[in-house]
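Obj.: predict assembly geometry.
Materials: sequence records (below).
Method: joint structure prediction, all chains together.
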Amino acid sequence: MQIFNAHPALYTGEVSRFDAPWLEIGARERGEAMEGYLRIGGREFETTGVLGWSGPPGEAEKRAFPAWTTLPGYRSLATGRNWHLAAAWGLGLGLAAYLVGGLAGGRLRRNLVPTRAMLAPRAVLADLAAHLTLRLPKSGGYNLLQRLAYLAVVVLVLPAMIVSGLAMSPAVHAAAPWTGDVFGGRQSARSAHFLGAGLLALFIGVHLLMLVLHQPLRRLRGMTLGVRETRP
Amino acid sequence: MTASRRTWLRGLAAAGAAALVSACDRIAGDPAVRAGLKGAERLNQGLHRVFFDRRTLAREYPDSAISPDFPANGSISPGDPTYRALAAGGFADYRLIVDGLVERPLALDLAALRALPSRSQVTRHDCVEGWSAIARWTGARLAPVLDQAGLKPEARFLVFHCFDTLDPEAGEDGRYYESIDLVDALHDQTLLAYEMNGTPLSIAHGAPVRLRVERQLGYKHAKYISRIEAVADFSHISGGKGGFWEDRGYEWYAGI
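Observations (raw structure tokens):
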């Protein structure tokens, strides 16, 4: 988000059409005060204090995302890039290790690919109803929606984040232009990278919410200490 | 399994507590952390050099892809007296100096530069801020210029000294400069550009001569070049990191 703040606008296609971003965060004068705004497509939302214009009283400044969301908190594209490009290695290597381990041990297929029984229309409806009413199955492996969500993140969103990130590198793009082409151009890849980050944040948020809703201590113990869950 | 997970968790908890106790910004400023981040930068550069053919060309586009609106960043109208005087005379007195670790130092006027082997390419310019724009660039290929000057064997980098002072408060260190290695210097698309979209470079875009070093971010493409110096090492120049923005924390290798 530190990096996004350096040019808080998103475009489609290969290059920036500066008069036509599909998303833009900015600030402007409104009478005596400043107001921040978020513009998506033709719609505009006033976001003073969070997006566009934020900071402690008297020291508010023009910045797309507020200080508490960026690393570092102060404005530094250079340091933000250092962190981002180093952390990308953590993501890439972590995902690679997960995929290699999961495929080799058959865990991905066993735990994440929906079973034939789960895909029966009646079972799909039952799972949907259970989620909508927040009456979740107590145990017995991942249910259908969980499997689909995890699978989408692991084989779709995370790889797309990596490829769209690579596409933005001019050196990678020269050697492998397909990285940009699969998204429809470099600026589209930048948009996808941003939207993908939003999806991941949403996924983590929902994930944590589900944990809190559903026997948090028991789950935490299962996840961290490896103690097998037992039916209560 | 459980024991190793516990050890790992304990480490994670300790790291988490440290992150909470001291502010994130202080961690970010810590020299050891910064050194670690720089390690990742060197890794990225090393991998690019190992995996990508050094002769790979950046994509070239049809003229129809040229951006109608190409932003000019950094200096857009240098106030430096030497530059002002040259600009007032239509750059008739301009001489591009090529010196340092070369056998035959050069002083090329614009006519001499235009007489050298040239190239014209429609390429995409990617700014470190995140935006992109496409233009046609025409200029002298850098490799033949270096052939003419005769690089000495100990030359490893080219330093581009510029006319513009981008940070007046930093005194002489506020002057723009950049540096590239010989892999990029000898690349087919690396140009001393004197035309943009078929007309002589405007002052905003770096008249009379700017660097085009495709496959790297915008700040590498030094504008208002006054002198090209071949060096073995650039640590004695200005802030020592090889460029105006590099001295201010940005990566020397700007391929990402």
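Conclusions so far: The CA atoms of residues 111 and 141 of chain A lie 7 Å apart.
To do: check interface contacts against the pulldown list.
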